[in-house]
Amino acid sequence: MMADIILSLILLGSLIGLAWPFLLYPLILRALPTKGEHPVAGPTPTASLLFCAYNEGAAMPEKLDNLAMLKGRYPGLEIWAFDDGSSDDTAAQIMARGDLVSLVRGPGRSGKAHGMKQLAARARGDVLIFTDANVLLDGEAVERLLARYADPAVGGVLGSLHYLGDGESATAAVGSLYWRIEEMLKDEESRTGNVLGADGSIFSIRRDLYPDFPDTVLDDLTVSMAVVFAGRRLVKAKDVIARERLVAARGDEYRRKVRIAARAWHTHGHLRPQLRRMGALDRFKYASRKMVRWFGALFLLSGGLAAMALAWRIAPWLALALLAAGGGAVLAGVLMRRGPLAAIVDIVIAYVATLQGVARAMRGNTFAVWNPAKSR
Questions:
Q1: How far is it, in rounded angstroms, from Cα 327 to Cα 272?
Q2: Model-level pTM?
Q3: Where do transmembrane segments lie in this chain (predicted)?
Q4: Do the Cβ atoms of 302 and 15 come closer than 8 Å?
Q5: With left for phi above 0 and alpha for psi between -120 and 50, is residue 58 left, alpha or beta?
C-alpha cells in the first residue's frame, strides 16, 4: 500500500512538472493584475540595429532588402553587422551594401556573444535593437518598438516572432506550437511586470544598460536580463513582428536545442548572484518558464517508470502491454514525418536534447559558436 502511494505521488509530481510551464504557470499569470505603462511626451530615441552572421549567404539577399526597407521607413536607423569568419559570400554581400550596413569582420570563429559586444561598443543609438541574420522585420517594427520607450521605466522591449514553414514536418509543427505558447507566456509576463529573458530574433534595450559579460554566455538572455537587474521593465510589444523559417529536420533541431540548453545553463550560473536579488514575482517567473523546462526529460522518465511500476503491481501483463504499445508508438513516430505520433516523438526528443545540453553544461562544456541549420 505504501509503495502504491509513493509511486502515485511520483507520477503526480512528474505530471505537474511536465504541465507546469505550459498549463499551470500560464493560468497563474492570467490571475495576476495588470501593470500598466506610463508614457511621457518627449523625442523619439535614436536606434542602432545589430546582427551577427555566419555562412548566411543564402539568407543575405532577402535580409539586406529587408534592412533597406526599414532604413527607408526610418532614415535615422544605424545598422551594424558582425561576420563571424564566414566561409561563403556572406561578408562580401554585406560589404557590397556599405551604404546601408557597417560591417565588422571577426578574426575567425569567435561566437555571437563576442560579435554582439563588438557591435554594441560601436553603436551610437539610444536604443540597441538585436536581431538574427535570417530574421525579417515588418515595416513598422522599428517605429513601434521605439514608441514603447516613451515610458521612462521601460528599459527593454521584445518583439513577437512569427515562424514560417510549420507544415513542412512534424519537427516544424512542434516547434511552431512551442513558440506560440512561448509568445503567449511572454505576453502575460509583460502584462504583469517583466518578461524574464529574450531570444535573439527581435529585442532591444537602452544602450546605457548594455552589460559586460564573457563570450561563453547566451548573450540574448544576459543582455535582456540586465534590464530587470537594473530595476527597469522588460516588456513585450505584440505589434512588433519578426519572421523566421522553422528548422524542419530532427537532427538540426536536436543539435540546436542541445547548444541552446547548454549555453542557457552556463548563463544561469553566470547570472545566479543577480537572479537571487530579484523580486519574488520575477524569481517565480524565471523558475517557472526556464528552470522547470530544463529538467522535463527527468519528469518524463520518472513519470513513465512510476506508471509502469503501478501497472506491474496491478498485473504484469498490463505493464508489458503498456510497454509494447509505447514502444510501437515511438517506432511509428520515428518513421513518420508528420502526424500526432511523429509530433509526440519530436516533443520527447526536445526534452532529451534540452537535458543533454544542461548535463553538458554541468560538466563544464558550453558552445561559443554556432552553425546555421541546413533544413531551415
A1: 40
A2: 0.90
A3: 6-28, 291-311, 317-336, 343-362
A4: no
A5: alpha
Report how far residue 74's alpha carbon sits from residue 68's, in angstroms, rounded to the nearest whole number.
Answer: 10
Q: Name the DSSP class of 240.
A: E
Cell numbers describing residue 44: 523619439
Domains delineated in the chain: 47-260 (3.90.550.10)
Sheet with 47-53: list strands edge to edge. Answer: 102-105, 78-83, 47-53, 127-131, 202-206, 154-164, 233-245, 136-137
Q: Give yes or no for a contact between 350 and 299, defined as CB atoms under 8 angstroms apart.
A: no
Q: Are the C-beta atoms of 139 and 119 separated by less than 8 Å?
A: no
Number of other CB atoms surrounding residue 61 within 10 Å: 10
Task: Identify residue 351 by its one-letter amino acid code.
Answer: Y
pLDDT in tens, 326-376: 777 666 656 666 666 666 667 778 888 888 988 888 888 777 776 665 555
User: Would you state the torsion angle of the CA atoms of residues 307, 179, 211, 270, taken in this order, to the nearest 10 degrees?
Assistant: 10
Asked if residue 133 lies in contact with residue 52, where contact means CB atoms within 8 angstroms, the answer is yes
**Residue 30 vs residues 213, 251, 252: alpha-carbon distances, Å:** 34, 36, 34
Compute φ and ψ for 266, nearest 5 degrees.
-60, -40
270 CA to centre of own chain: 18
